[in-house]
Design brief:
By secondary structure, the chain is of the alpha/beta class. The protein is built from twelve helices and ten strands. Helix 5 packs across helix 12 and helix 7 crosses helix 12.
């Protein structure tokens, strides 16, 4: 299913103009906060701060970004699940939220029942990179190499159970049940020296991190995980073109609030995010980070998207036996 189908963009109404008096009735009186369950300065934190800064220009009170890390995303997510149901505390999270139920045997919250999605923000694709000494110049050649040598080759990821790990396992599964050994690192920057040296010859990484290595010719790029080729990498074929029918994989960003938050407040938060995301300065900066921004998400379309992502990734997690560190 295409993302635009999932989000129902074709039938979405035009973005309602953001009316400050209407917002004031639904927005909490004090300063709001956006909880990011990832480290400051990272690929999730930077967009969250950019959007919060823009939203603060027109909200009744300023939005403050707080980083609450620990146990993957569990600590920060749990904080929001138990926050007052007034819209003053917003969770800004990623594909990690769709994977919590499959990754953890026990959680202090229910990722579905305890949250109301307000806004789907956008998605970031991934690029398959290999060391230049690996005898695979195309994705079909990589698939053939892995098929003929099951379990011989290692692949790196930016973290166990993260988006890159999941997308890699999805590739191995959809390419015919290929076998390769997963070597997780604490972030892409920690993994790259090993890939550059050839000690770990394969890595799927988010486009923003992968592009510089591709553009400098330091690593060979084989495919991008989008349905169609992207403007910033027009010569790079998709996985679908490379023979993996139906393969698409992204990390994505979404805003959620505790379930039970009044519907008017949920709609106000959605309108605020959509207005911020519609600003050229925000869209252009997020595009620079290779994010495909959505500017007319609704709470309903965000909820449908989250349900579809959980249905997509939970079987992959369980089949690969992925567990958090």
């Amino acid at each position: 299913m295409q993302r635009r189908d999932i989000l129902g963009l074709a039938g979405a109404a035009a973005l309602t103009p953001f009316a400050k008096p209407a917002l004031a009735q639904a927005w909490p009186s004090g300063p709001g906060r956006i909880i990011v369950p990832f480290a400051a300065g990272g690929p999730t934190d930077i967009p969250a701060r950019l959007i919060a800064e823009e939203m603060s220009k027109f909200l009744p009170a300023r939005l403050v970004v707080e980083n609450r890390t620990g146990s993957g995303v569990v600590i920060g997510t749990d904080l929001v699940s138990k926050a007052p149901k007034d819209g003053q505390t917003i969770l800004y999270t990623t594909i990690a939220h769709a994977c919590l139920r499959a990754l953890f045997d026990r959680l202090p919250f229910d990722p579905v029942a305890d949250f109301t999605p307000t806004t789907y923000i956008g998605q970031i694709p991934m690029i398959m990179l290999v060391n230049k000494d690996l005898p695979a110049r195309t994705l079909p050649e990589l698939i053939d190499l892995l098929r003929k040598n099951p379990g011989k080759y290692d692949y790196a990821s930016s973290g166990n159970g993260g988006a890159v790990h999941l997308a890699s396992e999805l590739f191995l599964h959809m390419a015919g049940g290929l076998k390769a050994n997963h070597i997780p690192f604490r972030g892409s920057s920690a993994a790259m020296p090993e890939v550059l040296s050839g000690r770990i010859p394969i890595m799927l990484d988010v486009a923003a991190a992968a592009l510089p290595y591709m553009q400098r010719g330091e690593l060979r790029a084989l495919a991008i995980s989008t349905k169609e080729r992207m403007p910033y990498a027009r010569d790079l074929p998709t996985f679908i073109e490379g023979g993996v029918a139906g393969y698409e994989a992204y990390t994505w960003h979404m805003a959620l609030v505790p379930s039970g938050t009044p519907a008017a407040t949920v709609q106000a938060i959605n309108a605020a995010f959509n207005r911020a995301l519609s600003q050229d300065s925000v869209k252009n900066r997020l595009s620079d980070l290779t994010m495909d921004v959505t500017t007319n998400s609704t709470p309903e379309s965000a909820a449908r998207f989250l349900a579809a992502e959980m249905a997509k990734w939970e079987p992959i997690i369980r089949a690969a036996g992925i567990k958090p560190n």
